[in-house]
## 1
Amino acid sequence: CVTKLFQDAYFKGGDITVVFTPNAKHCQIVCTHHPRCLLFTFMAESSSEDPTKFTCILKDSVAETLPMVNMTGAISGYSSKQCSDQISACNKDIYVDLHMKGLNHNSSITKSAQECQERCTNDRHCHFFTFATEHFPSVKYRNICLLKYTQTGMPTNITKLSEVVSGFSLKPCALSNLACIRDIFPRTMFADSNIDSVMAPDAFVCRSICTHHPSCLFFTFFSQEWPTISE
């Protein structure tokens, strides 16, 4: 279990995918919950014109490590998969002057960023939010709470923007008031948009995979007795 973050260091090679995160800590959380990610490099803000800032590069390696080279503004580290006491997707941090971009599916007036985060937490589709403070330059957007979602559950981009506050839903912290439905419905297929398909030994493992997928709300499991999978 390696918890240290390496400043101005870049893991060379092994790239799996790139996502946007507000800081290296959240990049490590994303890496920990990705099935293949063992290492990561987060590109911190180095200049206002830097297009790579806030990018989180997830990495894999058969040797479980990669060559590390010096790079100004880069922060690297390891997945927390081996740290049993640190495996949590809960992120209560609030990010001042950061705009996390995604699909806006709801907007409302709230008194504070905390109230906005609570609304996001209790909204079934919300992954993260951005709140414009009472000092936001445009009067019509002041105290507006934007609830956002994306296909991956992660922001599509992150930029600096004065007088806004962003954060994530606290559903992974078990703080949502949404009903917890544990029932398994035999001989029943949910009809809606399919976001992914994976192999699983039984319905309970399938439910666990759905629970940790950022966009999955419900699932259908096809047992070995199922003759063909309908499209």
## 2
Amino acid sequence: MPADDASFQLMTALVYRAGSSDERFPLLSRHFARLKAAHAAFQQEEPSSWCSRVAMPSDDQMLVALHAAVQAAQREGNEGDLRLRLLVQETGEPRVEAFPLTPMPEYPVRLVLDDRPSSYSDPCMRYKTTRRKKYDDARSRRGATLHPSDAPDAPPFDAILWNAKGEVTETTIANIAFRFRDRPHEPYLTPRTECGLLQGVMRSELLEIGSIQEATILVEEVKKAARDNSLSVICFNAVRGIFSAYVAIDDSV
């Protein structure tokens, strides 16, 4: 799908830690690098997009925008940690939205597999932008709400996406990793970049420090392990951190 000028902004989501004395914006350099990589990708893959005509803001400009958004939120009484959306607009100007940060629960959240494959030919499925309809549609058709609950009859928290080859890719808001209990000596395995996914900031960090490894993970092996109760699942992104999950299997997938 061509990326026309008015249809999208580049985006990354991050956290402001109010109580931190040394790293108020964790992984900030990775967030800046992510935006620059997205801008370069759209220049190449969608030469008609605004990214081909408009330069990226500098790191200093983006940092000023982040601090201004935090200060505005604090003036409104939000003194705790914040969830921030750092956007690069089609004018090249940074814009930041700030929200109170809601922590994830300690119990594992329920995930369900999407009922159809996702195509990753659109760069908006590989680089984070405000064009999120395909992710929203996946949650909608699977009844996922992004509202965690441990009630047995509660709707799922999120949907797991997969590609045309039957390879797991990600959830609609996070990267994902699996540990198969019949392979206890293996680390958590996360889908390979080549499978098609958003390369999240937390994913990059966990790969670099060796907490997870890339692998090709098939939908069928996830379904089998989930049915056998031999699967451990974690999800992660820069806002929610690392959180536990489980895969609920039904006959529709």
